[in-house]
Amino acid sequence: MSNMKILVKIIAGAFVSICLITNVFAQALSNGTFAALATKQLQRLNQAETTTPFENYLQVSQQKNSRYHTPKKGSTERKGIMNAARIPMSREIGQKVIFVVSIVRSDGQWAYLQAVPHQPNGSKLDWMQTPFARDWAGDMMSDIVMVLLQKSSGGWQAVDYVIGPTDVHWYSWLDQYGLPEALFSEQ
Predict the structure, then answer these.
(1) Which residues contact 186 (CB under 8 A, 6 or more apart)?
(2) So what's the pLDDT on residue 67?
(3) What is the rounded average pLDDT of the residues 11-17?
(4) Average pLDDT estimate for 30-34
(5) In this structure, are 174 and 82 located in the same domain?
(6) Mean pLDDT across the stretch 26-36?
(7) Are residues 10 and 38 in the same domain?
(8) What are the C-alpha distances in Å from 180 to residues 89, 102, 176?
(9) Which of 37, 67, 97 is the last residue of a domain?
(10) How far apart are CA 61 and CA 34, in angstroms?
(11) pLDDT score at 14
C-alpha cells in the first residue's frame, strides 16, 4: 500500500472518529471506549480500500438524506416506536415511563431511540427507586436508554436495548444486526 493511501486512510479515520464521538467524547475518554471505537473504525476503513474517503462520505450523505428520518412528534410512526420502546423499559425499570428524546431515527423498518426516561408526570426518574439503584449510587451508569426496534406485521417491536450505557453501545449493533451508522446518528 502506498504512503499516500495510508495517509488518506488515517485522515479519513480521524474524520469519521471525530464525527462518531462528538456526543460522547467525555464518557469515551473516561472509560476507554475511544480506543475501541478507533480500532473498529480502522477495521472498517481497511475493508473499503477501493473507495476514497470522499466517495464514502458522499455515499453516507446520500443514504442519510434519502432513507433515514426523524419521525415527527405526534405521527403514527413515532407513537408506535415510543409505545414499543416503553414495554421493555417499563418492565426493566419497574415503573411506567415516558421519554425525553435525544435521538429517534427510522427508515420505516428499523428504528433507533436514545432518550432519558422520566415519570409519566414528566418529572425526573428517581433511579434510587429502581432495580438500578446500586449502579446509580455507584456512578456506574448514565440516565440514558437506547432501544433498537424493528417493524413487523404486528407493528414496532424492541429487538435490543440497553439501560444506563456509559459508552456508544449502539456501535455494537452495526455488525450484530448489519445496520448502517446513518440509522443511529444524523451527523
Answers:
(1) 64, 70, 103, 105
(2) 84
(3) 57
(4) 54
(5) yes
(6) 52
(7) yes
(8) 24, 19, 11
(9) 67
(10) 24
(11) 57
Mean per-residue pLDDT for 164-177?
A: 93
Residue at which a domain ends, from 67, 91, 120: 67
What is the percent of the chain with per-residue pLDDT over 90, rounded to a whole number? 61
Are 41 and 94 members of one domain? no
Q: Are residues 44 and 118 in the same domain?
A: no
Average pLDDT over residues 163-167: 93
Mean pLDDT over residues 111-134, rounded? 95
Cell of 166: 456509559
Q: What CATH number is associated with residue 80?
A: 3.10.450.630
Is residue 10 located within the same domain as residue 28? yes
- Rounded to 5°, the CA angle 169-29-137 comes to 70
Does 83 lie in the same domain as 133? Answer: yes
Q: Residue 27 is part of which domain span?
A: 3-67
Kindly state the cell numbers that stand for 3.
Answer: 504512503
Q: Is the pTM here over 0.85, yes or no?
A: no
Q: Is 15 left (phi over 0), alpha (psi -120 to 50) or beta?
A: alpha
104 plus 46 within the same structural domain: no
